[in-house]
Each structure stands twice: as structure tokens, then as C-alpha cells.
Design brief:
about 100 residues; 4-stranded antiparallel β-sheet; about 55% strand
Length: about 100
């Protein structure tokens, strides 16, 4: 898979709309969603800092960790005249402890 300009730190795979997809998070500050059947990138999500972890929720939510934040991305299914993936909202969640430091 090509596209990232630095190391990939996280990968999560799932099936969306009957198609296998891989989500990759990189040190280059992007998350890319790839349709594994078509072999192409179907979305690129820029982040303010490098991605450090990914998790796919059971309800079409993608959890993206970067720096000390977590973004929750909700996915809209395929539809007429829409691209395969559309981000419909981002929720930033601060670090639970509220403390600075490592």
C-alpha cells in the first residue's frame, strides 16, 4: 500500500458495505482508508499530529489517537452521488486524567 510519506503506526481492518477495508494511521499525520477489493485509497483524513493508534467500533465509529487526543469519526454508508466514505462529525476527547506529562 502506498500513500503515506512516513512510517505506519497503526492498522485496523474491517468490512464495510460488504467490502474489506484497511485503515492505516501514520507518522505523517494522516489516516487513510483503503478499499482492499479495488486496491485504492477511498479517503484521506488529515490530523494535527502523527497517528498513534486506531480502533474500529461496532457501530461504524473509528477511534483515532494522536498526541494526547482521541478523535471519534462516524462513517456514513455508501449512497447515491456520494463518495464511498463521508465523515459526518469529529468529537475530540481530552485525556481522561487531565494531567500533563508522559
Amino acid at each position: 500500500m502506498t500513500g503515506h510519506t512516513y512510517s505506519v503506526f497503526a492498522i485496523v481492518c474491517t468490512v464495510q458495505d460488504g467490502r474489506p477495508v484497511a485503515v492505516t494511521g501514520s507518522q505523517d499525520g494522516t489516516v487513510r482508508i483503503r478499499d482492499l477489493t479495488a486496491g485504492r485509497c477511498i479517503d484521506r483524513i488529515p490530523l494535527p499530529t502523527p497517528c498513534t493508534a486506531l480502533a474500529w467500533g461496532s457501530t461504524d465509529h473509528l477511534f483515532v489517537a494522536f498526541d494526547r487526543d482521541v478523535a471519534v469519526l462516524r462513517r456514513k454508508p455508501y449512497g447515491r452521488n456520494e463518495g464511498p466514505v463521508r465523515r459526518t462529525g469529529i468529537v475530540r476527547v481530552s485525556r481522561a486524567s487531565g494531567q500533563d506529562g508522559p
